[in-house]
């Protein structure tokens, strides 16, 4: 049995798990998170009874805030040897696992947090409390973990350009209208809605679920090579003097810490000069 520091697995039934992310103080995703996610994928892919996983957060303000920039550049450990960079390996497997994956989103899902939920099969969000954003361009880089590829497929080219180039926050109702998420659900109803939905799916035949997902994936899910191209451009941008200056300014103003800067990140990245 694996032990996790940042995730809690609640096996509601043999066929349905809830996996809750908790990395205080603001649920930043870091190299330890990615290591645990890869380990979780090993469990998800090999469990013979599992049909549905719901991912949620223990922090109502942050689903996944974004990547922990204070740990950028650290060597990424992995549980086993893999072909692609660790994050790309994880999201590629998430897209293609036979298990149905659902994100139940309260709070902020920005940057890699948005890219995480985009790689889930379905996304249901709190109408009042969920916020989405791809702030990367605001600090001089591009999304490098799947957003370019997934958003263009989900919301169309023009709206994907709006989301990525504007680098601002989007509320759940707008995200629903654009197709970024499946539904914006009143916060008081979200847990019950997702719980009932997941339990219903988990009562169905596993092979039928697998076959349906595999066939629907033909309409287009990102290939690892596509995301790798975005990652390469992201790394190049991150090394530029302009980006380094903006990141330093962001840290000085509160990046990665509880407070107004993180709560209203979309607003603040527009004023980093």
From TrEMBL:
CDD domains: crotonase-like
One matching Pfam family: ECH_1
Molecular function as annotated in GO: catalytic activity
PANTHER family according to UniProt: EG:BACN32G11.4 PROTEIN, ENOYL-COA HYDRATASE
Listed name of the protein: Enoyl-CoA hydratase
Originating organism: Cohnella abietis
């Amino acid at each position: 049995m694996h032990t996790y520091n940042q995730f809690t697995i609640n096996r509601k039934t043999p066929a349905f798990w809830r996996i809750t992310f908790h990395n205080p103080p603001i649920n930043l995703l870091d190299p330890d998170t990615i290591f645990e996610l890869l380990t979780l994928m090993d469990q998800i892919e090999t469990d013979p009874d599992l049909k549905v996983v719901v991912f949620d957060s223990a922090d109502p303000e942050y689903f996944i805030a974004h990547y922990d920039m204070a740990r950028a550049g650290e060597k990424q450990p992995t549980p086993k040897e893999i072909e692609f960079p660790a994050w790309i390996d994880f999201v590629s497997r998430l897209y293609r696992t036979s298990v149905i994956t659902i994100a139940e989103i309260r709070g902020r899902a920005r940057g890699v947090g948005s890219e995480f939920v985009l790689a889930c099969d379905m996304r249901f969000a709190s109408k009042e409390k969920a916020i989405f954003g791809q702030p990367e361009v605001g600090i001089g880089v591009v999304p490098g973990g799947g957003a370019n590829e997934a958003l263009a497929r989900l919301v169309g080219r023009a709206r994907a350009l709006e989301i990525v180039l504007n680098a601002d926050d989007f509320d759940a109702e707008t995200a629903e209208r654009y197709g970024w998420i499946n539904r914006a659900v009143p916060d008081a109803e979200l847990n019950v809605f997702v719980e009932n939905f997941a339990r219903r799916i988990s009562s169905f035949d596993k092979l039928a679920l697998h076959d349906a997902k595999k066939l629907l994936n033909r309409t287009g899910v990102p290939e690892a090579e596509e995301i790798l191209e975005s990652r390469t451009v992201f790394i190049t941008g991150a090394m530029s003097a302009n980006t380094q200056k903006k990141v330093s300014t962001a840290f000085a103003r509160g990046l990665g810490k509880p407070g107004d800067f993180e709560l209203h990140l979309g607003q603040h990245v527009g004023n980093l000069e």
